[in-house]
């Protein structure tokens, strides 16, 4: 027996293309697919009778033809239906809504902080989330066994690598490759081993600021932060600072803003860059001084938008995200 599958395929597709209605299409379905008399099932039945060489690949080809034909029948059926049905267009129906995306509130706030500091000449650069113990701690004046490391519950990858616990990891790294004057922001993701609750999440965002130049003083820091606070929370917002301790700044301060309902709230840590940190970055502390600050973005988002639970920022719930 000789099988010309190509010819059968060509004829079948031509017949389908010419069919003008459901009746004809049904006839073709029977002609090719009917179990007892259909052409394709018949071919399948004949396969065992073919010689071994003739048989090779026939099964696959028949299967391909079967699906091609089924597709053609379905497509033709749609076309004939569409041309016979009377289509009713309701010109009063409302249009289809096109969903527009929006920025995540964290991204929005990061952009806003960047914009405010850009007025003061700060540029932005991002750094690695996986960093070394050296940049995250040691070069920031926190040698092994320093008590401040305890508070920063750290995810270690091995003895040297870790997930950064703060964006301060960028200070020395940046100074090593950039000569003063420096005015730069480091936004990015940080990690700490915290149990999630309304105000903690094991991953969060910070923005770090660093300014190094000749004759930079604490008043420059306070003036810059006041400019930020008024730009971000509103021109009448009150801010205050008090002495604190960070190993990498001396003196160190914490800054609070006056919230209309909640009273004084801490929003950031800051200080004058410790001479040892400057030296670690290759900067001569006899000639240059610097200030640095670091703030948690989630806290800013929550204060600005009145959000009570940090976890909602990471849920990816559109009912929440669509509001921004
Ligand atoms: N790294 C501190 C934190 O994670 C924040 C901070 C405090 C950053 C003082 C600074 C600084 O640059 O000077 O809580």
From TrEMBL:
Domain Aminoacyl-transfer RNA synthetases class-II family profile: 107-303
EC annotation from Swiss-Prot or TrEMBL: 6.1.1.20
Cofactor: Mg(2+)
GO BP annotations listed: phenylalanyl-tRNA aminoacylation
Enzyme class: ligase
NCBIfam families per record: pheS
Family indicated by similarity: Belongs to the class-II aminoacyl-tRNA synthetase family. Phe-tRNA synthetase alpha subunit type 1 subfamily.
Protein name: Phenylalanine--tRNA ligase alpha subunit
Name of the encoding gene: pheS
């Amino acid at each position: 027996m000789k099988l010309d599958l190509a010819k059968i395929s060509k004829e079948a597709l031509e017949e389908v293309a010419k069919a003008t209605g459901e009746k004809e299409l049904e006839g073709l379905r029977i002609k090719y697919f009917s179990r007892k008399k259909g052409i394709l099932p018949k071919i399948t039945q004949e396969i065992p009778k073919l010689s071994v060489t003739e048989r090779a690949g026939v099964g696959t080809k028949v299967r391909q033809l079967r699906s091609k034909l089924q597709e053609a029948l379905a497509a033709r059926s749609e076309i004939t239906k569409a041309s016979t049905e009377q289509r009713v267009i309701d010109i009063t129906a409302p249009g289809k809504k096109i969903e527009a995306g929006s920025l995540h509130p964290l991204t929005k706030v990061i952009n806003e902080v960047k914009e405010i500091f850009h007025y003061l000449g700060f540029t932005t650069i991002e750094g690695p989330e996986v960093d070394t113990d050296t940049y995250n701690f040691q070069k920031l004046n926190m040698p092994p066994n320093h008590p401040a490391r305890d508070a920063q519950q750290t995810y270690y990858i091995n003895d040297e690598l870790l997930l950064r616990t703060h964006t301060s990891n960028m200070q020395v790294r940046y100074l090593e490759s950039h000569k003063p004057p420096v005015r730069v922001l480091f936004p990015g993701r940080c990690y700490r081993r915290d149990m999630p609750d309304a105000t903690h999440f094991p991953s969060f965002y910070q923005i770090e600021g660093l300014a190094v130049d000749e004759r930079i003083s604490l008043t420059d820091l306070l003036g810059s932060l006041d400019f930020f606070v008024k730009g971000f929370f509103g021109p009448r917002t009150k801010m205050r600072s008090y002495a604190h301790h960070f190993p990498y700044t001396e003196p160190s301060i914490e800054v609070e803003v006056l919230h209309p309902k909640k009273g004084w709230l801490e929003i950031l840590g800051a200080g004058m860059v410790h001479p040892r940190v400057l030296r670690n970055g290759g900067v001569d502390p006899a000639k240059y001084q610097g200030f640095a600050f670091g703030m948690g973005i989630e806290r800013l988002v929550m204060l600005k938008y009145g959000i009570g639970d940090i976890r909602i920022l990471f849920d990816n719930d559109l009912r929440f995200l669509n509001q921004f």
